[in-house]
Amino acid sequence: MTAQIINGKEIAAKKKLEIAEEVARLKTQGITPGLAVILVGRDHASQTYVNNKEKTCKELGMYSLLIEMDEKVSEEELLGKIDELNRDSAIHGILVQLPLPKHIDEKKVIETISPLKDVDGFHPINIGRMMTGQNAFLPCTPYGIMVLLEETGISIAGKNVVVVGRSNIVGKPVGQLFLNQHATVTYCHSRTKDLSLHTNQADILVAAVGIPNFIKAEHVKEGAVVIDVGINRNEAGKLCGDVAFDEVSEKAGFITPVPKGVGPMTITMLMYNTLKSAAESLDRD
Ligand code: GUN
Fold first, then answer.
1. CA angle, corner 99, sides to 96 and 36, nearest 5?
2. Phi, psi dihedral angles at 79 (to 5 degrees)
C-alpha cells in the first residue's frame, strides 16, 4: 500500500481562512484578538518560531505584541510582565516561548499566566479541564493533530491509538484528546519493552519522540494512519521527522510528511485559541 499524504499546509491554510473571517466578524463587534509573545534570550529556533507567530497574527488581522527580554532577565521581572499582560484588556492570549534559561522556573511562569489567556493550554487548570472534558484551551500541537484527522475524514472512536512519546506538550495531551474521543490509547516511551509489539496494534500511530527516523516500517501495521510530530535534522542537516518516511509510506494508509504535516497546524491552533479567548472575553463582559 502507498500511503495517502495528509497535507497539513493545505488544511492549515483552510483553517486560517476560517479564523480570519471570524476575526473580521469580532472586529465589527469592537474587539481585535490580541496575542502577546514573550521571548527570553536569542535562541535561533525560538526566534524563528516567534517571528512566524507574529507574521501569522498579522495575516489573520489580529493584534500581535512581541516582548523580547534579555537572557539574564530575573524571574521576578518576567513574572511581573506576565502579570501586567494578564490585566491588559487588549491581550487575549499570552505565550512565553519555551525553553527558558535555567535560572527561571518554567512551572512558575506557566502558572502565573491567567488560565483565561493561556492559549498554549499549558496551565494545570487547562490541563485538568481538558482531562475532565470541560471547556479548555487545548495545547496547539495535539489539537492540530485532531483537526488534521477530522479534516481527512478519519474516525477515532473505537480505534487503537498508540502514542510514542510522553512529553507534557505533545505525547501526554494528545493521548488524552484521543481518549476523550473514545479511542483505546496506549503510551510507549523510552522504557517500553518490545516497542513493535505495541505499535503494530495501532490503527493510528503518533510519533512524538524527537529522534530522527525512529519509527520504521517494522513498527507499523499495514494501512495504519501515521502522524509524525518530529522536527529533527538528520546527519546531513536536512529537516526530518521521527518516522522513516520512505519505507513507512509504502506500508501506511495515511501519513503526515515533515515538513508540511503537523507543523503548520500548531501555529494555526494557536491563532484559533487566541480567537476563542477574545470571543469568550466578549461573552464575559
Ligand atoms: N517551544 C516549542 N514549542 C512550543 C509551544 O508550543 N509553546 C511554547 N510556549 N513554547 C514552545
1. 15
2. -65, -35
- pLDDT (tens digit per residue) in 228-284: 999 999 889 999 999 999 999 999 999 999 999 999 999 999 999 999 999 999 988
Residue type, 23: V
202, 179, 199, 177: which is closest to 188 by C-alpha? 199
130 pLDDT band, cuts 50/70/90, is very high
Residue whose CB lies within 8 A of the most ligand 1 atoms, among 39, 110, 112, 120, for a mutation test: 120
The reported pTM is 0.97
Interval between CA 169 and ligand 1 midpoint (Å): 8
- Ligand 1 atom nearest residue 141's Cα: 6
Q: CB under 6 Å to ligand 1: residues?
A: 95-98, 120, 140, 169
Q: Which residues are catalytic, by number?
A: 53, 97, 120
Give the position of cell 546531513. Answer: 236
Residue 263: name the closest of 64, 63, 48, 68 by CA.
48
Burial of 17 (0-12, 13-18, 19+ CB in 10 A): exposed
Q: Which residues contact 23 (CB under 8 A, 6 or more apart)?
A: 32, 33, 60, 61, 62, 275
pLDDT score, position 1: 78
Ligand 1 atom showing the smallest separation from residue 270 Cα:
6
Residue whose CA lies nearest to ligand 1 atom number 2: 98
